[in-house]
Amino acid sequence: MNEPELWFTERQTQNLSIGLRVAATLHTEQTPYQSLAVYDTVEYGRLLVLDGCVMTTDADEFVYHEMMTHVPLHTHPQPRSVLVVGGGDGGVVREVLKHPSVERVVLAEIDERVVAVAKEFFPAIAQGLNDPRVELQMGDGIRYVQDHPDEFDVILVDSTDPVGPAVGLFQEPFYQSIYRALKADGLMVAQSESPFANKQIVHDVFHIAKRVFPQAFLYLASVPTYPTGLWSFTLGTKKYHPLQDVSDLRLQQTRYYTGDVHKAAFALPAFVRQHIQE
């Protein structure tokens, strides 16, 4: 008798789901903040799941982490101090550390179990978390931002979806705190969901950033396991323009990000451009 197939299915919207065939369940637990699971999938390797939602996979994590990081860090001419809010898997931290100017990276993650599980099951993603330049702050990222004005060159908001402890990361008071936590020429990027599956969130986050910062921009990347595969990022900047002030490329070992991709990511399809202008 054949063994039954095991599948992980994420219900991404009320009418859309993604399914991945699972070779093995590696870890499950209920943390103080969320359910956490790690699966070994046939198609995408290891999969990290929080509250039933795909956070990252071995196969496509580089797209999200590189685009979250290298677009803003190449826009800023000399990023030295960087704050990552969320991102307990360590992928964004790993990419930030590739920039030679960076002297300090703070990871503000509310759930210490995400960090511990990432170190155990995703060592290639979490490899930077033990770097001496990295400071781990286990606690509320919103409060941390509020308590550290005028401190960072770049802030990266690597949040989960706007549910549970992440709801406040999508609201205007948080972006105002980010503005205050940045230095006079600082800039920020936040993941802002899918233009197909989360149109209202994309619109709202972009317009919050537009109200708070002198300049705001939306850019896109293709992340296969995220809803619809098309993902958006919102950049708010006090001074530097992501297409006019781009520093020379400091990196050679990237798998998705290039100088051409940096420019092309801001070339929005007509329907996305129209949506954020409404």
Cα separation of the termini: 57 Å
The CATH superfamily of the largest domain turns out to be: Vaccinia Virus protein VP39
Q: Into which percentage range does the β-strand content fall? A: 25-35%
Low-confidence runs? none
Largest sheet: 7 strands, mixed
The figure for the number of domains is 2
- Element order: H for helix, E for strand: EEEEEHEHEHEHEHEHEEHH
Overall mean pLDDT? 94
Secondary structure category: alpha/beta
The strand line-up of the biggest sheet is 8-7-6-9-10-12-11
Q: What fold name stands as the CATH topology of the largest domain? A: Rossmann fold
Report the C-alpha radius of gyration, rounded. Answer: 18 Å
How many helical stretches?
8
Give a concise summary:
With 278 residues, this protein is an alpha/beta fold. 27% of the residues lie in helices and 33% in strands.
